[in-house]
Amino acid sequence: MVRQAPRMTSLCVLLLCTTLLCFTSTWGCPDGCECLVSFVNCQAAGLTSVPTDLPLDTDHLDFTENNLTYIHADTFKQLSQIQQLYLAGNQITDIEFRALSMLKHLKILDLRHNKLTELREYYFTGLSKLRQLFLVGNIITKVDSMAFSGLFRIEKIYLGKNELTSFPWASLFLLPMLEQLDLTENRIQVLDPKIRNMPQANALFLHDNPYRCNCQMRWFEEWLNSGLVPQGMDAYRNLYKCHLPESLRQDKIVSLKQEDFYCAPPALTVYSKTVVVENGMPASLCCHMTSGSPTDVQWLTAHNITINRNTSLGRIWTEGNCLHIRSVINMDVGEYVCTVTNQGGAVSASLSLDIGQPRTEQYNVNANTTSEEEMTVTIDRTEVFILCGFSSGSLVFVAMYLFIKWPNVGPCKSNKAPHHPPAHGGIGCFQ
């Protein structure tokens, strides 16, 4: 009997531990969940919110495949010990301000296959110990430049299978421990050359995007074939393919030549060479491209003052591709030059502004030739409004509406003095 005492003691200890384990796994565990010490499994329980009676010492919460739609500020308020949080396969569309900030010990955050549309700057505030962030399979179109601010220990960010067309590359400089950034299967068409000089370049996975192989991507082909590309990216070099232009679709970028990366220079068609307005009335001069993709629009005023895109100089300001003058005075009269620039080159066109009776409009039907053919149209006893529009990058609509004030409108049918239309502003367009 003396020899069996240790065995009896061991058996009692085992039964006691089993009892405590069962007690821990059942007491304080909400319906639909299973609790095992500090591990809580609520997977596929059909829950629409995180239960409020979860064990306070929970450090591993699996809440995948439920119906959570929104993370409120108090959703995890009592669960400050969580280290691993799995929320994949829910319907989450947004995260309230600082809703995760109390999770000071969080190391893994899984938000795969939800319905997030952007990453706001405050989503991950306070998660200084986060190591892995899973965001695959959402519908994210935008990442704020400060979205990853404070994630000093982040090692892996998975953003594949989203809708991103761009990425704030400069934000990577704030992530000194980053080992992997997955941006595969997004909608990125052009890459920023700055990524070549980033210390985290080896962490980038950028293949399987619909790249536009124009002059803006010429540097990328050169880099891939230089032998200097990081090992991680080089392993997938054959998966970087062109989506546009159509002639290069599915071609491997590493197999192309430098001359294959072509950008069409901008082209302008000038429809109105002269804008005439009455003194004190507004005027708008618009400079639009008929082909190519603009990267910069610049105006030179009649007094050789350069105005860049979307800037203001008091009465004169630019918005988009147009230059506006709030109230035309004598000093505004003269020639204005619009210069449009893109990766393929630059082109300029000029338009004159004058003060007078806006009775005559001049049209240049072939502005890209050296000998310009102009057609003058004179309209008496009418009001003419010309609207120039731009749609789909190349289509121009010019609509003319004539409101006839007298029944005798023919220029040769009346002996009365010609009627001058009331004062109104002028609009001229480069299309």
From TrEMBL:
Keyword terms: Disulfide bond, Leucine-rich repeat, Membrane, Repeat, Signal, Transmembrane, Transmembrane helix
Location of this chain's protein in the cell: Membrane
Membrane-crossing residue ranges in chain numbering: 384-404
Signal peptide (residue range): 1-28
Membrane topology: Single-pass membrane protein
Highest taxon, organism lineage: Eukaryota
Domain annotation Ig-like: ranges: 266-352
Pfam families, per database record: I-set, LRR_8
InterPro entries, per database record: Cys-rich_flank_reg_C, Ig-like_dom, Ig-like_dom_sf, Ig-like_fold, Ig_I-set, Ig_sub, Leu-rich_rpt, Leu-rich_rpt_typical-subtyp
GO cellular component term of the entry, any: plasma membrane
PANTHER family membership: ANTIGEN BSP, PUTATIVE-RELATED, CHAOPTIN-RELATED
Name under which the protein is recorded: Leucine-rich repeat-containing protein 4B-like
Organism whose genome encodes this protein: Branchiostoma floridae (Florida lancelet)
Gene name linked to the record: LOC118412985
